[in-house]
Each structure stands twice: as structure tokens, then as C-alpha cells.
Specification:
single chain; 120 residues; seven-stranded mixed sheet; four-stranded antiparallel sheet; elongated
Length: 120
Amino acid sequence: QVQLVESGGGLVQPGGSLRLSCAASGSIFSINAMGWYRQAPGKERELVAAITRGGSTDYADSVKGRFTIFRDNAKNTVYLQMNSLKPEDTAVYYCRITDYNHYVGGMHYWGKGTLVTVSS
């Protein structure tokens, strides 16, 4: 079993910045993809950013140029640097990882979520 612990959420004014962290621990085989999703009130959960073990990234159009995803493989940790935050970025942000076991394939894990509120 793998556990994910997220941190860094909170209240910030429009135009401000936050950095989210997600650390994986437990029975890890080999972490491949890591990513951040978010869910705003009344909306479905959506992909914000994802990163492969080799460093390839993908971003939602709404956050391109403002958010940056990066990872520290030695620490099994993924980060989301959020700059120029807008009120519409307000959501619960969830960390997701894929742990790969050669015999059973990929296993997906979710964090419990951290709330980001952008408001003046």
C-alpha cells in the first residue's frame, strides 16, 4: 500500500503564489507518472498537470504559463508551483501517482486533497 501526503494549500490573494507538495511513502515499487487534479464546487475533477519519471510534462490550457509541475524522484515527491493565481483556481487539489509493479501493472493512488482558495 502507498500513502500520499499533500501540503501547501491555503488562502491567497489574486496574483499571489502557492506551492503544493505531495510525498509518497509505503510499499513503493516504481513510481511512474505523478500529477495534480482539482475539483471546484459544482464541477467535475479535472487534470491540472502531470509529469513522467523522465520529466515530460502536460498542463491544462487554463494554467499554462502560470503553473509548473516538478518532482524529486529521490524523495518520491511531486510539487506544483502556482503563480499569478486567479479566483477561478479555487478548488480542492488532489495528488495522484501511478506505481508500477512488473507483475500486476500500474496501481493508482490518490491523496486526500488540499484546499486552495484565491480571494481578496
